[in-house]
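Listing 4. Sequential folding, example run.
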Amino acid sequence: MTSPFTPIENPSLFCRFCSKIVPAQLDRGIAENGKTIDKKSTFEYSCSKCFKTSCYCGKDLLEINGEDETDETRTYSPREHYFIGEEIFHKTFDENGLVVGKENGSNGKILVHFEKAGLKKLIQDI
């Protein structure tokens, strides 16, 4: 049996319609009929500017007070898996960045926003 999952509710996400990083609102979790909402479920987030929705799999989202959430900032490595809403440190840019999305149609690329370096596409899970 799978355990219930509670994703972050108001993350900053990259809206592919606005082409900006905006605050987003969790609309709902979509699970198959009668199933528990877990990491295999899909979650809809709406953009606070254009109100269009984007869907993310639970395995890509940071969990509220869960096993994924940590006070420690991880150093970026292409071999690791990162969660939307997680803060990471990139040695080349010498700064922390926030994971704000996944590249459309690609599980292997994340979108990370850095204050100085801007929005960057980084690979993961290789």
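-- end of first protein; second protein begins --
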Amino acid sequence: MANNQNRDRSKRDLPEVPENEKVEYAEELADAEDRQAQARAKEAEQRQQNRVNTDHI
């Protein structure tokens, strides 16, 4: 149960962003964490594409 409380508390600490607001990535403003997140996203996209391509075989 403590895990749920921590999760709920961390959600409250996040800034509120409207659902439809577009957020643009700017390489010149990116820090190391942003670059790592971009790399993870790219790898995940590649895994998804590989999965979709092999599902049709």
